[in-house]
Amino acid sequence: MAEILVLVDHVDGEVKKVTFELLTLARRHGDAAAVWIGPGYEGAKDKLAEYGAAKVYVAADEELTSYVVAPKAELLAQLVSEKSPAAVLLPATGEGKEIAGRLAVKTESGVLTDVVDVADGFVAEHSIFGGAIVSHAKVSKGTPIIAVRPNSTAPEASPSTPAEEQVSVSLSDAAKGTKVVEKVVQEKGERPQLTEAAIVVSGGRGVGGADNFKVIEGLADSLGAAVGASRAATDAGWYPHSFQVGQTGKTVSPQLYIAVGISGAIQHRAGMQTSKTIVAINKDSEAPIFELVDYGVVGDLFQVAPQLTEEINKRK
Amino acid sequence: MNIVVCVKQVPDTATERKLKSDDKTLDREAVDGVINELDEYAVEEALTIKEAHGGEVTVLTMGPDKAADSIRKALAMGADKAVHVTDEALHGSDGLSTSYAIAQVLKKIGFDLVILGSESTDARMGVLAAMLSERLGVPQVTLANKVEIDGTSLKAQRLTDYGFDRVEATLPAVVSVVEKINEPRYPSFKGIMAAKKKPVEKLAVADAEIDAAKVGLAGASTEVVDFADAPPREKGQIVKDEGDGGAKAAEFLASKKFI
Ligand SMILES: Cc1cc2nc3c(=O)[nH]c(=O)nc-3n(C[C@H](O)[C@H](O)[C@H](O)COP(=O)(O)OP(=O)(O)OC[C@H]3O[C@@H](n4cnc5c(N)ncnc54)[C@H](O)[C@@H]3O)c2cc1C
Ligand SMILES: Nc1ncnc2c1ncn2[C@@H]1O[C@H](COP(=O)(O)O)[C@@H](O)[C@H]1O
Question: B194: distance to nearest CA of chain A, Å?
Answer without folding.
Answer: 32
